[in-house]
Amino acid sequence: MADSTRATFTELTEGRPFPPMSGRRPVDLAAAGFVESEWAVSGVATSYDAVATPEDGRFELTEADAAPFATRVLVRRPADAAAFSGVVLVEWLNVSGGQDAAPDYTYLAEEILRAGHVWIGVSAQFIAVEGGDAAVGMGGQTTGLRAARAGRYADLHHPGDAYAYDIVTQVGRYARAPQEGPLGDLRPERVIAVGESQSAFALTSYVNGVHARVGVFDAFLLHSRGAGFLPFDDRGRGADIRAAVGSSPARLREDVGVPVLLVQAEGDLVGTIGSLPARQPDSEWITTWEIAGQAHADLYQLGEFAQFVDCNGPINSGQQVFVLRAGLRHLVSWCGGGARPPAAPPIECDDDESVTGGTLTETLGNSRGGVRTPVVDAPVEHLTGEPDRDAQPMCMLLGRTVELDEQILRRRWSGREQYLQAYREATDRLIDEGFLLAEDRKEILADARPERITW
Questions:
Q1: Overall number of domains in the chain
Q2: What does the pLDDT look like over 17-35, one tens digit per residue?
Q3: Which secondary-structure segment (H or E) carries 264?
Q4: Residue 296 located in a structural domain
């Protein structure tokens, strides 16, 4: 049933758009040679019944009922077809804040624009269209696109998150072979699904149960998943991400058949997200990068929203943005027949499943192992994915940046120049190893923190 279904795209032009939530200033798409358009995507979506969801990820599904839908997609593409890389990224937009957000576009925009990729953000879930309870943030009910901008989105309707998997499949199927619509003059070669946090929970369900049935995507980038997965039975409602966090663990199925890059923050391993029970070694189709000293969400992602957050001190200011850009480039190459991404050691954990730090003089309290960004490899502060124990609930995913006493820093650094030299060497080594990109070197070096050293 699902294999023969194709969605219809209708451009949205009335009224004002309601873009995905972001704390960062919009990228100047025109200056980068890109254009943006917004479309209603409609059709009939199939849902699935889960027969079995074992820990090894080899989910067994059967097709269930079908329901009509009409949701929105936001498309950012090169204006000139000659500048198109051939790669389309389909981001499952995140609704944990009660409305659409595009966290992976936020992190990956620089790489998307310079490479010439197309980005499609899909309002895949019920809450985005119909409104509902925000899982994080200040909580409370949100209105959804249809009520927020009736003049533009009045015709949208969503049958529930059980149908989200097929909605995303239909968008991916269109991206593989566009006809009319936003990609009409482009000829895509590879289509990659991406998603962060709740969207990565959903893509875990998709990889483990749906992908083998439909075979639409050429690769997956899962960013900050938990040990569990989003359910398949939410008809007429949005999924309860809090229940998904507490669900039984499931690894990604190793016979997925296409490249999967899983990028996890240190803060994802334990605590609220708690992905550690589903940790798995690299295999033929799966590569995992765990970023040391990194919180689930950070200062880069929050942008201007950070000033409104009181977490009893500065939130995590890690550098996962640079790691994610490198990861995307590796994934694009890998699914095009190139080499797989470099292997990274896991972050070291004690037997009680707590993340461990090194000796004071080695790491200044930062964890051992993992992908070690320059601010962790040449530390002048303690970066952690764990929030302050007395911080408000909305801080649970934001971690901390802890300033260190001068006495501690003096035992590690003789002065500012030694620190800057070590930071440059760490940056260049990580570029050589493939965990950072040479094109980002200037931006990474500008993120050094010599002001911490005053002698």
A1: 1
A2: 999 999 899 999 999 999 9
A3: strand 260-265
A4: no
